[in-house]
Amino acid sequence: MSRSRTPRSRWLGILSLAAAGLLLTSVVAAAPHDASAATTKSSAVTTTDIPGVDEIRSSPNLKLVVNLPKETPLDATNSDLAFQGRYAFAGNYNGFVIYDISRPSAPTVVSRVFCPGSQNDISVHGDLLFLSTDSPRSDDSCDSTRVPSSETQWEGIKIFDISDKANPRYLKSVQTACGSHTHTLVPGRNRATMYIYVSSYGPSDTYVGCPPPHDSISIVKVPVHRPTDAAVVATPNLFPDGGYEGVPGQKSATSGCHDITAYPSKNLAAGACMGDGILMDISDREAPQVINRVRDTENFAFWHSATFNNAGTKVIFTDELGGGGAPTCNDTIIGPNRGADAIYDIVGRGDDRTMVFGSYFKIPRENANTENCVAHNGSLIPVFGRDIMVQGWYQGGISVWDFTNSANPREIAYWERGPLDGENLITGGSWSAYWYNGYIYSNDIAKGLDVLRLTDWRTWTANFVRYRELNAQTQTGRFGR
Questions:
Q1: Smallest Cα–Cα separation from 325: which of 5, 7, 16, 9?
Q2: Residues 6+ apart with CB under 8 A from 194
């Protein structure tokens, strides 16, 4: 989700319907995308009417198993998910929750850690848990308070010891330029080192610790057995030319990255960098090199996140039109190509690899104007011979879609709740929807943890894959690890 504060959020913090209307009716000269190839097709059961408040609708092959509501003190906005063994780790703007999911039909809370600092983007590795803090804080403790950006004392990465899941211990903080909106774990060449690629954006002349220009990411090196020695080792400039200049109020300018997804075994990473989508060679973990860059000045407003297919021959970019707080799943106003996914084929070899546009995908259901809905976080389902992804769309719900044919993606399953309110837009819905060891787990912003079961002939082989650990932004291939 994009930031809700100013000045860092720019147009992303303007979530009123009027602002959304400005975003959605303004068009500038575009790269030559074939809009006719972008029509979303679906083999899932769909309906033209909109569910009522809290009413659940779904295709026959995707069903809710259980929901665990949020509880105080972690009753703020839910954010991302990570997994390890029999545990799920759920970020929340007030901290994080560890769930025991050994019985997916009856998950239980192992511990709750109160440690405010939006967004608390989360990942895990071994006995370590990492949290992103992207709000100006009075200090680096879990008792910190929010302060004006002109008085920032700390923001960045927090590291916890989770060897005892019932009693996580805060170990170390690492301050990073412009904070840490999201982060991505990238294993080093040996098991003794882990790198964290920190994505942040939104510089300002009055923002302490975040002056313009900010065309870089921060790379934190973590000695796995000495995590208190973690430190920033590089801040590579990914956009020496400054990146896309943007269109005020319509298309976001590039000033850093929003999210990076790595495929370490292939030495690849894809960055969704506000106004640009990039492909990087990460052979040298401390010096990633941009090898290709794409823009979509017609339909993309904010390059939000990326996902590779299993073969590493495609990459999906998402457009978070409206900053995650606007009703953009509306065919008559928005259309099928904005607030959508874009599929790019990766062609060529080595430094000559380029990304070639294939088509767009957007959920084929109309949402109410009281529902924030746009493409958001998802992961691959580890299916043999196909490219299939599960994805959260905020109040658009959860979609499972097949992009094996880059030019003709199709939805094969969906599940959604109706709006939180029939009269007013209240932010909610699936922040992240990820496949993990036979089930789909969704961290709903307002409703808590949802566990769902997909029963479909096209995905049955995924039930034989078991992951020991899953951070969706660190891809490991179809066979798990």
A1: 16
A2: 125, 128, 185, 186, 187, 188, 221, 222, 224
The DSSP call for residue 254 is P
The whole-angstrom separation of Cα 4 and Cα 220 is 26
Provide the CB-side half-sphere exposure for 344 (13 A, CA).
Answer: 25
pLDDT per position in the chain (481 positions), as tens?
Answer: 655 443 333 333 333 333 333 333 332 223 333 333 333 444 554 455 899 999 999 999 999 999 999 999 999 999 999 999 999 999 999 999 999 999 999 999 999 999 999 999 999 999 999 999 999 999 999 999 999 999 999 999 999 999 999 999 999 999 999 999 999 999 998 989 999 999 999 999 999 999 999 999 999 999 999 999 999 999 999 999 999 999 999 999 999 999 999 999 999 999 999 999 999 999 999 999 999 999 999 999 999 999 999 999 999 999 999 999 999 999 888 999 999 999 999 999 999 999 999 999 999 999 999 999 999 999 999 999 999 999 999 999 999 999 999 999 999 999 999 999 999 999 999 999 999 999 999 999 999 999 999 999 999 999 999 999 999 999 997 554 4
The strand pair at 377-381 and 354-361 is best described as unpaired
Q: What length does the chain have?
A: 481
Q: In what order do the strands lie in the sheet with 169-175?
A: 119-125, 128-133, 156-161, 169-175
What is the residue-wise DSSP string for 109-153? EEEEEE---TEEEEEEETTEEEEEE-S-BSSSSTT--B--GGG--
Q: How far apart are CA 127 and CA 411, in angstroms?
A: 37
- 3-state class of 308 per DSSP? strand
Q: Both tokens of residue 281?
A: 């060679």
Distance CA 20, CA 301 (A): 11
